[in-house]
Structure formats: structure tokens, C-alpha cells
From TrEMBL, chain A:
Membrane topology, as annotated: Multi-pass membrane protein
Keyword Secreted belongs to the record: no
Main location: membrane
Any Pfam family: BCA_ABC_TP_C
Chain segments annotated as transmembrane: 29-46, 83-101, 108-124, 154-174, 204-222, 242-266, 287-309
Lineage of origin: Bacteria, Pseudomonadati, Pseudomonadota, Alphaproteobacteria, Hyphomicrobiales
Cellular localisation: Cell membrane
Protein name stated in the entry: Branched-chain amino acid ABC transporter ATP-binding protein/permease
Cytoplasm among keywords: no
GO molecular function: ATP binding
Source organism superkingdom: Bacteria
Native organism: Rhizobium oryzicola
Domain ABC transporter: 339-584
Keywords assigned by UniProt, alphabetized: ATP-binding, Cell membrane, Membrane, Nucleotide-binding, Transmembrane, Transmembrane helix, Transport
PROSITE patterns reported in the protein's UniProt record: ABC_TRANSPORTER_2
From TrEMBL, chain B:
Recorded family membership: Belongs to the binding-protein-dependent transport system permease family. LivHM subfamily.
Annotated CDD domains: TM_PBP1_LivH_like (cd06582)
The entry's keywords: Amino-acid transport, Cell membrane, Membrane, Transmembrane, Transmembrane helix, Transport
Species of provenance: Rhizobium oryzicola
Transmembrane segments: 6-30, 37-56, 62-83, 95-114, 120-138, 150-173, 193-217, 248-273, 285-307, 319-337
InterPro entries xrefs: ABC_transp_permease, BCAA_transport_permease
The protein's name: Branched-chain amino acid ABC transporter permease
Keyword Heme: no
Main localization, broad class: membrane
Subcellular location: Cell membrane
Pfam families: BPD_transp_2
PANTHER family, per the entry: ABC TRANSPORTER PERMEASE PROTEIN, BRANCHED-CHAIN AMINO ACID TRANSPORT SYSTEM PERMEASE PROTEIN LIVH
UniProt membrane topology term: Multi-pass membrane protein
Length: 586, 351
């Protein structure tokens, strides 16, 4: 076992020393690995972490390669100007394609990437300007002052400088505010919206970043080989990139380098070997790679990185107690109205799920919203949190109309929630899950995070998260994985994340479901304590016993309508409530 | 553009659309039962064309070895699974289904390859040979992942295309082929427009098979079982329908449709080992228009794609593919919103 940092330093030094000791063909090969690893790095962020599949990355490589190719040959511009324009055009293309397609779900998104990937590839092959299928010759080498990158060794160093910088940028990014949003993408839009993250915006930004990484690769490729034709920008090659990502381990940044290295080496070995066996080596190579991809998807979806990670020891960064605090919201005075639900109605086609329901919640109260199955509690919950929009009536939060606001906007006003079916990122630590909750209270963007200029704020956010974990009693396990917690504690962890939003109102969706008696008692004690600290709480619950001893007031819903409202003792005695719950048999 | 040209393009588009329609029905069927977008069905169509062409030129088609090898592997895979699950008594059934049945047309193919036999026999043996391909591909590659997300299944389907197209080159070689037309001659329309009989045949076959599909799914028990599996796997299982069996039926029918596609277009288009990808992709566009669920809308969508393609190849033939694939994106957006309206979708972890 050695520290991860040490291994990284060893790898970088080995890469630096390689041209001095290795034969030229290996240097060339490793240059190709570097170029591919840039594209694959984009795929790791996009696919492995962000959950979006793209069969179009090779097309982005092509856009950049052709841009710089054309500018430097037809117009005779400097390759560095070529770089600027290549990246600009790739980013604009990615932005345009992303705006149109990234709302697509499931298999629709990868289908669309095939569609535009193919279209762009055919465009390269049909534009007279780009030399059609014969491509472009005599692309000049890159020069920087007196240095020419004509030699393979010089090019090798240039390529790996870009590849390592991009790797560092990605590592920094993932360990930051926006990086957490990226890591939450797989958790779905409701999870992200509940803590104020923008799902579409995050998808779009990572798509553009992956496009830019592919663009850098395209620029390097064009000036390294100094000849381009449409073939390397085909959908088939995009699949090779995907294979590299999967081989290395698509959810790890370092997997990009490992995967590209391995696949390029295998490819080279096949290219030496296959001509002895067959007259169609290219196709046999395709067969081998396709087979490899299928086998990896079936047997080893996490790729090689887990093996690498076994060798290294990763220590969790300590939390700085002197980091300082994040700004906190002013809580309303006890008794002020926090939430007003006024004659809210929600229809689904002909079905009225919530029918003219009104109630309010005052600061410092715990209010329970109860009712039998199908009473419309969950719909009500979704209407308050902005997950669904109201058909008529209004939801006012702290005096502002919140009926038409999105989940994100509702969260920004100070309304945090938990989920009936726990939504946590099981592969992230407790701390990281809770730090995600501070998204709206912090500012750092992509550039700042990637360049590591966000540390002061980041440390404050981490300290805040630790304090929230202390508040709910999970601080000892801050660095464990969320997936290792039992269900009861996962629900508590969700509360800690919601608290990190710094809410005025906390809304809990069936928090006692699936909990054992002891866990329920602990949860009730926690909620009591939070009320004591001035928090306002609304509980949507099924479990009568749990709410009876906890809440100040109850709102009972039946068949989409409000049946009763009152203190627990009155509600318990109410014959109409008894009938609704027990069908009149009591 | 004169009326003649419009008419010619329209007929051309309709016959191309008929091909996409046949393949598209297979797409919808397989997707609705298994959630797989079965891109390799295009390759199956190409292999059917190449097989028939090989028979016509008195050579042994490479697909015989391919199907035989797949049958042996699939049979082994099935036997291993059965033994592991402790259901060894079903071994004979598995061997019959995965090995014996697919090997019969292989042997028949070997027997007639070098002989002068009636054309109809060649077509029949080509069909029988190609028919098990979908089921075998499924057993070897997709079935073990049946519970994965549509996304993973889609990547595997794409990988399978590259896998079998690569094998296609090895077993068939790089040469393009055309087969002898099934129907010779032309029909003259008023106004002097001539339509090759083969194109008319394509349209008639598509029409008839669509009708058969309609009746099959509306009336027969198997059809209803497939529909039930499509709408709810667990529910269907509770009703005694085995999803694996339904999937096998779907792949069998889809391969049959693909084989018909290959046999019908080989006389009018030169087919190569890798021609299937484009046929598969374009037919999938028709199926996507139908939401991978509706047969009638798929039919309309396929015909639309066929006409668009023939129009595009007349107006801007270099940009034909670009035009067709650009149409997909708005269609995808429209369809995706119909399915994922609230946008909350958790994505399966890779690791």
C-alpha cells in the first residue's frame, strides 16, 4: 500500500522519463495514448460520472482537427490560433447539440448522439472545403518561439502536458461544489432540485467540457499526424473511446489514462499479430474490441481501476475546525406564518388528486399531514416543494407566491426536504452527501474549482457539513460511505443534508417508514430538538403513533380533501377521522 | 421537378419505406418485449442477402459456419446455466432448441450449396438459416444482461453490431453482391412511368406482413402473451408467461422479418457485409417515430423515412444521410418528452 499521491508522482515521473529510455515507436504509441486519454477523460466525466452516454465524441475530435487543419493550411494561420478557434468551434457545437439533446432520457440520448455523430462524420466526407474523403495533407507542426514540435519527442511532451493538466483539472473539479453536482446527476432530477442544483445546466456544462477535452485531442492529433481524413472521427471510433473508458474504469479520472493505455497497447499488439492470421486485420480488430466491450459490460463494469485502487491508500482530508462558517439565514420569529396553502387544487386529467385544500404552518411548529393511502398527501407534498405545479389555488412561502416556482427556486427560498424512498449517493461519503446540501450557500464555479481557487469556501462548507452531521449524531461516521448505513440512519443522513441547505422549513416525506421502534424514537427526539432550535417542520406521514406524540397540529386529508385540522388529542377522538382510517369499524 | 419525377421518387420512397417498415416492426416487437433496440437486425438482413447470393453463385455461404458456431456456443451457455440452476432435466430440451434446430438448416444449406435447385428452395433455406440468428445473439450477449438498464442494453446492442459485422467480413468477404430478382419485369403506370416488379413485390410483402402482424397480435394467444410481456414483465410472469420464451419468440420473428428485408432488397441494392448498419439505423428511426411501441405509427414513420430518403437522394444525394439523421433529433425530443415527462430518472451505476 502506498499513498495515492505518491503513486501519481511516480506515474508522472515515469511519463517524463519515458522518451529518454524507450524506443521511438513506444514514444509515438504513448503520444497516441495521451491524445486518446483526453477524449476518454471527457467520457469519464460525461458517462462514468454524469451518466450520459455519447457515441459522438470522435465527431468532436474531428471538428477541432478539421478547424485547425483548415485554418493552418488554407489560411496559413498559426496552430495556436488554430487551437483557439478549434476549441471555440467545438465548444459552440457541443453547446448547440447539448441544448437540443441533453433533456433526452434513457436510451434516447445515446441514439441522438449516434444521429449527430454520423451526420458530422458524413459532413467531413462530403465537404469539398475539407477535402472530402481524401482529407487534408501537410498540416504544419506546432511551434512555440524557437521550439518546434515536429519531433515525436517534443510532441510527446506537449501532448502529455495537456493530458495531465486536464486530468488535474478534472480531479479538482470533482472535489468541488460543481463536481458534487456532477456526481449527483445519476441520483435524478428530484434529488438535485431538492438542494438547489440545476440538472440540465450541470449536464450541459459537463457535456461542453467533454467536448473541449475532445477538441484539445483533435488539435493535438491534427498537428501530430499532420494529415487528417474522416475515418478517425467515425462512430466506430467513438465506441473505441467508450471501450477505453470502460476498460480503465469509467467512474475514475485515472481510469481514462489506464484505459487508453491498455486499449492502445492491445490495438498495437493486434495490429502486429493479426496480419499474420488474416487478410482483414482491421475487421478482426473491430471484432476483438466489440467482444471486449461486451465482456467488460457483463463481467467487469468497474474496469481496472478497482485493482489499481487496491494498491493505494487514500486518506480522507481532515476537516479544518478553524475554517469559519457559511452565512446563515435569519429564521422568522416563532408564530410567524411560514407556509400558507390556500385552496390548492391539482388535477391529473379527470382525477382530482388534491381538491381545494387550505392550511398553514407557523414558524417553530411541527405540523403533521396525515391520511390513509390515496388521500393525496404525496401530491400535496410535491405541490409544496415545486415538484408538481398547482392547477389552481396558491402556495405561499414566507409571504411569497411559490405556486409556480421550480424545486430549485423553492429550495433557494429555504424549504428543504427528504424523500420517502431515500435518495442518497451510496458511493459517496456521509460528509460529501451532506456537503452537497450547501450548494446554494456557496459560489465557486467550474473554472475556480478546476484551478483550486475555491479552497477557503470549500473548507467552510465541509465544516458546515460536519456540524450538521454532529447535529443528527452521525459525525463519527463522516468518512464512511452512505451506502454502508442502515436504512434508519440513511433517513437521518437525508435530514442532515436538508439541514445543510439552511432551511426555514423542513418537509419530511414519511420519515418513519421502514424504521424500527428504537429508530423512530431517536428520530422523534431529533425532530423535537430541531424544533427547539427554531426550525419549522412539516411531516407527511402514514404512521399515526409516530406523529401523535410529536406534532403540534395535524391536518388530515381523505380522498384529496382536507377532513380535519387540530391538535393530536382532538384528532384522535374525532369520529370522522376514525372512520376514515378504520372504515367505521372502530 | 415534373410530376413524373415526383411519382418515381414517391414509388421509390414507398418501396424503401416498405423495407424500413418490415425491419421497424421487428424493432418495435423486440423492444417492447426485451427493452433492447436491436440494431443488429440490420446485419441479419445483410447476412440473409449475402447468404442467398452465395447460394445463387453455387458457393457455401459463410453464414452456415457462423450460425453453427453460434448454435454450439449458445447451447453450451444454456447448458451451463441449466446445470448451475439445478434444472439439468431440461438439458435435452435446451440442446434440441439451441443446437439441433439451428443446425438442420446449416446441413441443408451445405447439401444444396453446390446444386442446381429451384430458387424457392434457396430462399427457404436462407430463411431457415437466418431465422435463429436473433435468438442465438440474444442468448449469447443480451440475455445475461436482461435486467440492466435500457442504456446498457443499447450499448451492448451497438457492440454486437460491430462484433457480427466484423465477423461478417471474415465469413463473407468484402465483395458486394446483388441477387437475381424474385420477380422480373416492370409495370407501366399511366403517364409513362415504369415500376420494376421487384419494387411492387416489396410493397405488397410489407402490406401483407403488416396485416399478419395486426391479426397475430390482435387474435392469437402467442401474440397476446407477447403484448402482455411488453406491458408488464412481472405481471406476465404471474400469468404463466415466461419472459425468456416471449423474448425468444420476439427475436425469432424479428430475424424472420430481417431475413425477408435482406432477400427483398438484395436484387435492387448492392449489399456488403456492413450494409446492415445503415438499414438498421434508418429502420430504427421509423420505429422511434412509433415510440418503439405503436405498430401503425411505426408504419407511417417508416414510409416517411423511405420517402424522405428518396427525395433527399434526388435533391442532395451527398447529404442524404445527414438529412435523414438530422430528422431523428426532433423526433427523439418529441418521443423522449412523452416518456420522461417529469425528468426524474435515476441512472444505473456502472460499477
Amino acid at each position: 500500500m502506498m499513498p495515492a499521491r505518491l503513486l501519481a508522482v511516480v506515474v508522472v515521473l515515469a511519463l517524463f522519463a519515458l522518451p529518454a529510455v524507450a524506443p521511438p515507436f513506444l514514444v509515438t504509441l504513448m503520444s497516441h495514448v495521451g491524445v486518446s486519454s483526453l477524449v476518454v477523460l471527457g467520457l469519464v466525466l460525461l458517462t462514468g460520472i454524469g451518466g450520459m452516454m455519447s457515441f459522438g465524441q470522435a465527431a468532436f475530435v474531428g471538428i477541432a482537427a478539421y478547424t485547425t487543419g483548415w485554418l493552418t493550411t488554407a489560411l496559413g494561420w498559426s496552430p495556436w490560433l488554430g487551437l483557439i478557434f478549434a476549441l471555440a468551434l467545438t465548444a459552440v457545437s457541443a453547446l448547440a447539440i447539448g441544448v437540443i439533446t441533453l433533456r433526452l432520457g434513457g436510451h434516447f440520448l445515446p441514439l441522438s448522439t449516434i444521429a449527430w455523430g454520423l451526420s458530422i462524420y458524413y459532413l467531413f466526407g462530403n465537404l469539398e472545403l475539407l477535402g472530402r474523403h481524401s482529407g487534408m495533407l501537410n498540416i504544419p507542426p506546432i511551434t512555440l518561439g524557437p521550439i518546434s514540435f515536429m519531433s515525436q519527442t517534443a510532441m510527446y511532451y506537449l501532448i502529455w502536458t495537456f493530458a495531465l493538466l486536464a486530468t488535474l483539472f478534472s480531479l479538482n473539479l470533482l472535489d468541488s461544489r460543481e463536481g458534487r453536482a456532477l456526481r449527483l446527476l445519476r441520483g435524478g432530477a428530484h434529488l438535485m432540485g431538492s438542494i438547489g442544483m440545476d440538472t440540465f445546466g450541470t449536464r450541459l456544462r459537463v457535456f461542453v467540457i467533454s467536448g473541449i477535452f475532445a477538441g484539445i485531442a483533435g488539435w493535438l492529433y491534427a498537428h501530430m499526424t499532420r494529415f487528417i481524413s474522416p475515418a478517425p472521427f467515425e462512430v466506430k471510433i467513438s465506441i473505441e473511446y467508450l471501450l477505453m473508458a470502460m476498460t480503465g474504469g469509467a467512474s475514475h479520472v485515472a481510469g481514462a489514462t489506464v484505459g487508453s493505455g491498455l486499449v492502445v497497447l492491445i490495438k498495437n499488439w493486434l495490429q502486429d499479430l493479426l496480419p499474420h492470421l488474416t487478410s482483414n486485420p482491421a475487421q478482426l480488430e473491430q471484432v476483438a474490441f466489440a467482444l471486449m466491450l461486451i465482456l467488460i459490460l457483463r463481467f467487469a463494469r468497474s474496469g481496472l481501476m478497482p485493482l489499481v485502487l487496491k494498491v493505494v491508500r487514500r486518506t480522507s482530508r481532515p476537516i479544518l475546525k478553524e475554517a469559519g462558517l457559511l452565512p446563515k439565514r435569519q429564521l422568522p420569529a416563532p408564530g410567524d406564518t411560514v407556509l400558507e396553502v390556500d385552496a390548492v387544487e391539482r388535477r391529473f386529467g379527470g382525477l382530482i388528486a388534491v381538491n381545494k385544500v387550505s392550511f398553514d404552518v407557523k414558524a417553530g411548529e411541527i405540523v403533521g399531514l396525515i391520511g390513509p393511502n390515496g388521500a393525496g398527501k404525496s401530491t400535496m407534498f410535491n405541490l409544496i416543494t415545486g415538484t408538481l405545479s398547482v392547477t389552481s389555488g396558491s402556495v405561499r412561502f414566507l409571504g411569497r407566491d411559490a405556486s409556480r416556482l421550480s424545486q430549485r427556486e423553492v429550495a433557494a427560498l429555504g424549504c428543504a426536504r427528504t424523500f420517502q424512498h431515500v435518495k442518497l449517493r451510496h458511493g459517496m461519503s456521509l460528509l460529501d452527501n451532506v456537503v452537497s446540501g450547501t450548494y446554494l450557500r456557496t459560489r465557486a464555479g467550474y473554472i475556480k474549482s478546476g484551478l483550486r481557487l475555491d479552497r477557503a469556501e470549500e473548507e467552510r462548507a465541509r465544516l458546515e457539513a460536519l456540524m450538521r452531521l454532529q447535529q443528527v449524531g452521525l459525525a463519527e461516521r463522516a468518512h464512511d460511505l452512505a451506502g454502508d448505513l442502515p436504512l434508519g440512519q440513511q433517513r437521518v443522513l437525508e435530514i442532515a443534508r436538508a439541514l445543510a441547505v439552511d432551511p426555514v422549513l423542513l418537509i419530511l416525506d414519511e420519515p418513519a417508514a421502514g424504521l424500527r421502534k428504537k429508530e423512530k424514537d431517536a428520530l422523534a427526539a431529533l425532530l423535537n430538538k430541531l424544533r427547539g432550535e427554531g426550525l419549522t417542520i412539516l411531516i407527511v406521514e402514514h404512521d399515526m403513533d409516530f406523529v401523535m406524540n410529536l406534532v403540534d397540529r395535524l391536518v388530515v386529508m381523505v380522498f384529496g380533501q382536507k377532513l380535519r385540522e387540530g391538535d393530536p388529542a382532538t384528532i384522535r377522538r374525532d369520529p370522522a377521522v376514525q372512520e376514515a382510517y378504520l372504515g367505521g369499524l372502530a | 421537378m415534373s410530376l413524373d419525377i415526383v411519382l418515381i421518387l414517391l414509388i421509390d420512397g414507398l418501396s424503401t419505406g416498405a423495407i424500413y417498415l418490415l425491419a421497424g416492426l421487428g424493432f418495435v416487437l423486440v423492444f417492447s418485449v426485451t427493452r433492447v433496440i436491436f440494431i443488429p437486425s440490420g446485419d441479419i438482413a445483410a447476412f440473409a442477402a449475402l447468404t442467398l447470393a452465395a447460394f445463387q453463385s453455387r458457393t457455401v455461404p459463410g453464414s452456415i459456419w457462423l450460425v453453427a458456431a453460434m448454435a454450439v456456443l449458445a447451447c453450451l451457455a444454456e447448458c451451463v446455466t441449466l446445470v448451475r440452476n439445478g434444472s439439468a432435466r431440461r438439458l435435452p430440451h435446451a440442446i434440441f432448441f439451441y443446437a439441433v434446430l439451428p443446425l438442420i438448416p446449416c446441413i441443408a444449406g451445405l447439401a444444396i450449396a453446390k446444386q442446381d435447385v429451384p430458387e424457392i428452395l434457396r430462399i427457404a433455406i436462407t430463411m431457415a438459416l437466418i431465422l435463429p440468428m436473433g435468438v442465438l445473439i440474444d442468448r449469447l450477449t443480451l440475455r445475461p444482461l436482461a435486467t440492466s438498464s435500457t442504456l446498457i442494453l443499447f450499448i451492448v446492442a451497438i457492440a454486437v453490431h460491430f462484433l457480427i459485422a466484423g465477423i461478417g467480413l471474415i465469413v463473407f468477404g468484402p465483395e458486394g453482391v446483388r441477387t437475381n430478382p424474385i420477380l422480373d419485369g416492370v409495370a407501366s403506370l399511366p403517364g409513362g412511368v415504369v415500376v420494376p416488379a421487384q419494387q411492387i413485390l416489396m410493397m405488397i410483402v410489407a402490406l401483407l406482413l403488416s396485416l399478419v402482424f395486426y391479426l397475430f397480435f390482435g387474435r392469437s394467444i402467442t401474440g397476446k402473451a407477447l403484448r402482455a410481456t411488453a406491458s408488464n414483465r412481472v405481471g406476465a410472469r404471474l400469468m404463466g408467461i415466461r419472459p425468456e420464451r416471449a423474448a425468444a419468440a420476439a427475436y425469432l420473428i424479428a430475424s424472420g422479418l430481417a431475413a425477408i428485408v435482406g432477400i427483398l432488397i438484395a436484387p435492387v441494392t448492392t449489399m456488403y457485409y456492413d450494409s446492415g448498419f445503415m438499414i438498421g439505423l434508418k429502420a430504427s428511426v421509423g420505429a422511434i417515430i412509433g415510440g418503439m411501441a405503436s405498430y401503425p405509427i411505426t408504419a407511417i414513420g417508416s414510409v416517411f423515412i423511405g420517402i424522405l430518403e428518396s427525395g433527399a437522394s434526388f435533391v442532395a444525394s451527398d447529404y442524404k444521410e445527414i438529412i435523414i439523421f438530422s430528422v431523428v433529433i426532433p423526433v427523439l425530443i418529441w418521443r423522449s418528452f412523452a416518456v420522461h415527462r417529469d425528468g426524474d430518472e435515476e441512472i444505473e451505476e456502472l460499477a
